[in-house]
Write a structure and sequence with these properties.
Elements lengths: L1 H16 L4 H9 L4 H15 L3
Length: 52
């Protein structure tokens, strides 16, 4: 049925659109950092190591 096919497509888009912050959140908390501070540090490290 068309509605079932559409539901499968929508479910696939929803699954692909989800972002997984679990690992980063765990690492940030382990070091006593807020998530935004963690990502700022990660971005700084990336830029320093990739000649930005």
């Amino acid at each position: 049925m068309i509605s079932e096919e559409l539901k499968l497509i929508v479910d696939k888009f929803n699954e692909q659109g989800k972002m997984n912050f679990l690992e980063e959140t765990t690492k940030a908390k382990a070091h006593g950092l807020s998530l935004s501070a963690f990502f700022r540090l990660a971005a700084d490290e990336y830029m320093n190591n990739h000649n930005w």
